[in-house]
Specification:
By secondary structure, the chain is of the alpha/beta class. The protein is built from 13 helices and 21 strands. Strand 7 and strand 8 form a beta hairpin. It starts with 7 loop residues before the first strand and ends with a strand.
Length: 436
């Protein structure tokens, strides 16, 4: 499918566009043009799909939804979002939105009615309400929330009226804006039957609609990647493995995860299933900040684009943007205007080249994974599909090394150099992608 062959680019719109941290629910600000202005660059960079974090009306950060049918006024209008998505589609870029179905903000109208009418409204069945308790907001009632955050009111998805409301909203997003997929926020809390309901709903609108679940721990989630539920989940295990392996000079760590998840062993968890891969996102430290040895930044992205799964770049990280989790994660979500787009031109060029290689290779999109060689500071592996065979070799050390894989010739897709694959020379902090 299109998403298996894609290169994703993740945008956190409220941060990207420089929106206010708090929604005053006043006049509309017209900021979506900041995203439109980047479309030519994204296309040139090889991006084929954009993943937007929350766009709809919210109180603060987007995950506290107030209105599922209206674009956040700090960003613009529904008409402007429709125009933006049309521009992206014209550039050959698919659009995936963030679907937040586990919880809402306190200003969500049905919850406000519960606060006012208490037992006098049927909306009380949309939430898990304890009318004999009290919340930290002194509401005179208590309610289930997301992981102790009282500002995020948990939805009671078992309620049929609520299900109809949410599915109608999804149909609205598809029909009105033409979206191509959804990222399911905190998918690890969504019941399997809800995923199946959502799958039936979206398939009735688009048979190639992409559903990817946000899953922090992926070990027991493989059954949910199936035709009647999800197409993919977020690959936090390999994200953590890549950063940790590079920082500890121990590639055994990431290779262990790759074999455990994707090898041809009968116990491998996700063989033949394509997870959404990343080296940073809106919830974790920026890759440039997290990586101790900045000389390995290009290697990190080479690995991202060549391991099984679909690569996703977080906005600004292609420029070497830094950011920690300070200031309630706002350091991770800067306005695009504040970033120096020319500070790390070598990195941006390298990602463009990787995107070109990725979109032209069935072995990288669909191929098997097999370990070839492994040392603490260098590794190589093989990806194969439909007669195409790629050998990826990476050296994260401060000294050169030679990797011996097999007796054959290949061309390095990164440089065009032809070499014998039994004698792959790697300078310090370098990588190659050889095609036989």
């Amino acid at each position: 499918m299109w998403f298996d062959e894609s290169v994703f680019y993740q945008i956190y719109p409220l941060g990207f566009c420089g929106a206010e941290r708090e929604n005053d629910f006043g006049e509309v600000r017209h900021r979506l043009g900041k995203i439109s202005a980047e479309i030519p660059r994204l296309k040139e960079s090889g991006v084929t799909a954009v993943l937007f974090n929350p766009l709809f009306e919210s109180e603060r950060h987007g995950y506290d939804t107030v209105d599922f049918y209206k674009v956040d006024r700090r960003l613009g209008t529904n008409a402007e979002l429709k125009e933006l998505i049309a521009e992206l589609h014209s550039a050959g870029i698919r659009v995936v939105l963030d679907g937040v179905f586990n919880h809402v903000g306190r200003a969500f109208a049905p919850f406000q009615e519960v606060l006012k009418k208490r037992e006098g409204t049927d909306y009380r069945f949309w939430f898990n309400i304890n009318f004999g308790g009290n919340s930290s907001y002194n509401d005179g009632l208590d309610y289930e929330n997301w992981e102790g955050h009282a500002a995020l009111v948990k939805l009671r998805l078992e309620n049929h009226d609520l299900q109809n409301y949410l599915m109608d909203a999804v149909r609205f997003w598809i029909r009105e804006f033409g979206i191509d997929g959804l990222r399911l926020d905190v998918c690890y809390l969504l019941p399997p039957w809800f995923m199946e309901l959502l799958r039936r709903t979206v398939n009735a609108e688009k048979n190639d609609f992409y559903l990817v679940g946000e899953v922090i721990h992926c070990g027991n989630f493989q059954s949910n990647i199936s035709p009647d539920r999800l197409d993919s989940i977020t690959n936090y295990e390999c994200y953590k493995g890549m950063i940790s392996a590079f920082n500890s000079d121990n590639l055994f760590e990431i290779e262990h995860s790759l074999t455990r998840l994707f090898s041809d062993q009968p116990w491998a968890l996700y063989t033949g299933k394509r997870m959404l891969n990343f080296v940073d996102n809106h919830d974790v430290i920026r890759a440039f900040t997290a990586l101790k040895n900045k000389n390995n930044l290009l290697n990190l992205y080479t690995l991202l684009f060549t391991i099984p799964g679909v690569p996703c770049i977080y906005y600004g990280s292609e420029f070497g943007a830094e950011g920690d989790k300070g200031d309630n994660d706002h350091h991770l979500r800067p306005c695009i205007d504040s970033l120096d787009k020319f500070a790390h031109s070598e990195l941006a060029a390298h990602i463009r080249k990787l995107a070109e290689i990725r979109t032209q290779s069935r072995a990288l999109a669909y191929g098997s994974y097999r370990k070839a060689t492994l040392q603490n500071k260098n590794m190589s592996f093989i990806r194969e599909c439909d007669g195409e065979k790629l050998i990826v070799a990476i050296n994260i050390g401060d000294t050169d090394c030679t990797v011996r894989v097999e007796e054959a010739e290949g061309v390095d897709l990164l440089t065009g150099q032809v070499r014998n694959l039994n004698d792959i020379y790697l300078p310090p902090h370098s990588a190659c992608i050889y095609k036989k």
